[in-house]
Amino acid sequence: MPKLIEAQALRSQVASILIANGSAPAEAETVAANLVLANLSGHDSHGVGMLPRYVDAVLEGGLQPNAGVRVVLDTGTLLTLDGQRGYGQVVGEQAMALGMARATAHGSCIMTLAHAHHLGRIGHFAEMAVAQGLVALHFVNVLSRPVVAPWGGGDGRYGTNPCCIGVPLKGREPFVLDFATSRVAQGKMRVAYNEGRQVPPGYLIDAQGHPTTDPGVVVVPQGSSAGEPGGGLFGALMAFGEHKGYGLAVACELLGGALTGGGTWHRPADNARAVVNGMLTVLIDPARLGTQQRFDEEALAFVEWLRQSPAAPDGTGVMLAGEPEREARLERGETGIAIDDQTWAEIVQAGARVGVRVE
User: Fold this and answer.
1) For residue 202, what is the domain's CATH number?
2) How many Å apart are CA 320 and CA 200, to the nearest integer?
3) pLDDT more than 90, % of the chain
4) Does residue 229 sit within a domain?
5) Which of 64, 67, 57, 51 lies closest to 13 in space, CA to CA?
6) Alpha-carbon gap, residue 29 to 35, rounded angstroms
7) 3-state helix vs strand vs coil in the chain, percent to 5
C-alpha cells in the first residue's frame, strides 16, 4: 500500500535530508517546499521522488549546495544569468525575481539562465510571474542522459525539454500551460516503473527501437552492457504530436541550451546523476505594452467562449491549463500525498546515505 503523508511532515523530512547533504536551512526549506508542491499539484514526477537523485548529484559533485545565481549581463531588459550548478528551485526563483523586477520597470525582460541544476516544475516560475500580472514564456533544455527519440529516429538524442506559458486572467485563476515536449515526462515513467505499471502504447520505444509499454526501458539499463560508460542500453520516450512536438523540442534545445550559453546535448550518455537545465524566459507587462484593457477583455471573452462548449459524450467538460493542478492541491492538501513503496524506500536509503533516519 502507498504511504500517505501530510504535506508539512513531508516537507520537514525532505528538508532534513537536504540539510544533512550540505544545504543551509533556508535552501533546504525552499527545495523541499518546491518538491512537495509538485506532489500536491499532481506532478509526482517532479516531486520528492527526485530527492535520491539530488543526494547522489551532490555526492558526485554535479550539484552545488548553497550556490546562488550569478549575473553575467544586465542591460535592464536583457539578463544573462548563470545558475552555477545550484539547486534549480533556488536559482530559478532568484532568476525570476530579477527578471520580474526588470519587466515591471521596463515593460519586458528577456532572460537567459544557464547551468542550473534541475529546475523542477517550470509552471512554478510561470505562477510567480502571473501573480504579478506578467505574461511568461519559458523554453527549457535538459542536459542529462538523452531520453527522447527525434521524430523518425530510433534512440534517445535529447531530453524532455519543457515548454511553459503563463497568462494572467483578470479576476480569474491564471492560464498556466506547462508540459514536456516528450509524449510524457521521464519522471512519470520512473513513477510507473516503481509502481509496477505498464504505460499506454505510443509512449516508448525499447533499446532496439521497437514500441513497448514497459516503462523500465527508460529507467533501468537493458542488456549486458549495464556496467559500461553510459549505463548500458536504454529505450527512449517518443515526442508528443509526432513531428510537431519534435520540432518544439528542438526549439527548446536551441533556445534553452544554445542561446543561453548553457550548452546542448551532443555526446554519448554517461552515468552522471546531475540534471542540468538551461532556460530562456520572456516576461511581458501588458500594462506597459499599452494593451492591458483589451487584453483583459479579450482574454476573458475567449475563456468564456471555450466554457460554453458542451461536454463531449465521454468527457467531463472544458478545462484550462492550470486547473487540474489547483484541483489536485485542494484534494491532496486534505487527504495527504501518496508515495509508492519503492519511491519511499529510495528516499529512506537517500537519508541513510547522509546519516538521516526517515520513517
Assistant:
1) 3.30.60.50
2) 24
3) 89
4) yes
5) 51
6) 10
7) 40, 20, 40
